[in-house]
Write a structure and sequence with these properties.
- This is DUF1416 domain-containing protein.
- InterPro entries: DUF1416.
- It is a single chain.
- By secondary structure, this protein is mostly beta strands.
- The chain has a single domain, classed as Immunoglobulins (Immunoglobulin-like, Sandwich), CATH 2.60.40.
- The protein has no helices and eight strands.
- The strands form two sheets. Strands 1, 2, 5 and 8 form a four-stranded mixed β-sheet that branches. The chain has a four-stranded antiparallel β-sheet with strand order 4-3-6-7, with no helix packed on it.
- Strand 3 and strand 4 form a beta hairpin.
């Protein structure tokens, strides 16, 4: 059973050709030692470092956020470690991120 304690929808993989309907989508996978890491709390931080949202990664480590254009940091927190990645989303489409937790 998926952990939905944060109230976010279940996370699934986001293919590169995903129809974003003109929206900015920040998506990716959380890994640990090159294996998918499920159950990580994945946080979206804006360009000022302010918290804007959180989801729990799927059993396969997948996560997805809908955002506005701009600079974003995505941080993964897990009992086995933490990791983060940054992205500049200049416009609509899928912006892929990989987060390695150590």
């Amino acid at each position: 059973m998926a952990d939905d304690s944060c109230g976010a929808p279940a996370q699934t993989a986001t293919p590169a050709d995903y129809d974003t309907k003109g929206q900015v989508v920040l998506a990716g996978k959380v890994t640990s030692s090159d294996a998918p890491l499920g159950g990580a709390f994945v946080r979206l931080l804006d360009g000022n470092g302010d918290f804007t949202g959180e989801v729990v990664s799927s059993a396969d480590g997948d996560f997805r956020f809908y955002a506005a254009p701009g600079n974003w940091t995505v941080r993964a927190l897990h009992r086995s470690g933490n990791g983060e990645a940054s992205v500049t989303a200049s416009g609509p489409g899928v912006h892929q991120l990989a987060i390695a937790v150590a």
